[in-house]
Amino acid sequence: MNAKVKPNIRHLSLDEITTYFEKIGEKKFRVQQVWEWLWQKHAFDFQSMTNLSKDLRIKLEQEFDFTSLATDATQQSEDGTIKTRFKTFDGHKVEGVLIPTVERLTACVSSQIGCSLSCKFCATGYMDKKRNLNYDEIYDEVVLINQQAMKDYGKKLTNIVFMGMGEPLLNYRNMMKAIERITAEDGLAMSPRRITVSTAGVAKMIRQLGDDQVRFKLALSLHAPTDKKRNEIMPINETNDLKTLVEALNYFYKQTKSEITLEYILFDNFNDSFEDAEDLVKLYRQIPADLVNIIEYNPIDFARFKKPAEEKTEAFMNYLEKNRVNARLRRSRGKDIDAACGQLANK
């Protein structure tokens, strides 16, 4: 006979927990106590809920599952970056990164276990996608990285970027629900303006973000300024070409007035010429982008790409500046522990 499948208590709404407590004759204030343990006091099991009676904790344990992420391993870089490998309740592994700078403490979180998009420069793209992360698992990533920030740097996280493993817009419902819990007053109470969601370019879901009037920031992983070159390194471009993306980004901005950033990794002798810079300028002028992040390439085992020489990078940046593009060179952090942009692969 099959064992009863218990619902995950963190997948219940406040109303659903209230209804359950009424059914078992518990006082109403207990609902708030449990809710606080789930989303503010960050309990990872029922036994940690110390202001509940032992009998109630046993009853909850019998009725509900309480799954959570666990820290499996951590590595610290010479520059202070900390990479954590998390383990899910069903034995999968996924990575998140704490990136410290003078002004910020940023959590780079994953949205999927593996990825289905197969971008040629990204280590995660060479892994199979196992499954989407649930919203409570994404929330746990932020909680655990925030605890790390407090322990190692004495400060809370200031920013969150969805730039880890996976494509957030292909896990739309869980990503949105995680952000709702992260920004809720009865959650982590972080400002949505401190959150950036990065996409490889899923036009339909960019439009959906506009329709949902989101208040967080959006980044497009561009990495090539023409369809021909983008098709070579990002297969998603074959079904979401630049014209379609430009239209979707303009629609998103019109609906939300939220900032858009373009992310552009420089690859030696591929997308780093003056012609590429000129194509990037033309594209930039079609999009309501406030910033182009030029990113250093971080080598991975499977890819043929190399980082351009410093003078080539400088010349590319100068060309953008001369053409009034607001561009910033983003230096990689955590390279020595495979924690930098494009390197996450459970190594």
Q: Can you give a write-up of this model?
A:
By secondary structure, the chain is α/β, with parallel strands linked by helices. It folds into 2 domains: 12-63, DNA polymerase, domain 1 (Orthogonal Bundle); 70-337, Aldolase class I (TIM Barrel). It is 34% helix and 17% strand. It has a 10-stranded mixed beta sheet, covered by helices on one side. The protein has a two-stranded antiparallel sheet with strand order 5-6. The radius of gyration is 22 Å and the shape is elongated. The model has no long low-confidence stretch (mean pLDDT 92).
Layout of helices and strands:
Layout: H1 14-23, H2 29-39, H3 54-63, E1 70-76, E2 82-87, E3 93-100, E4 105-108, E5 112-113, E6 131-132, H4 135-153, E7 159-162, H5 172-183, E8 195-199, H6 203-211, E9 217-221, H7 227-233, H8 242-256, E10 260-265, H9 274-284, E11 291-295, H10 310-322, E12 327-330
Parallel strand pairs: 4-7, 7-8, 8-9, 9-10, 10-11, 11-12
Antiparallel strand pairs: 1-2, 2-3, 3-4, 5-6
Helix pairs in contact: 1-2, 4-5, 6-8, 9-10
Distance N terminus to C terminus?
40 Å
Please identify the oligomeric state.
single chain
Main sheet attributes: strand count, strand direction, barrel closure:
10 strands, mixed
Structural class of the helices, strands and pairings? alpha/beta
Strand order of the largest sheet: 1-2-3-4-7-8-9-10-11-12
Strand tally is 12
Number of self-contained structural domains = 2
Number of helices: 10
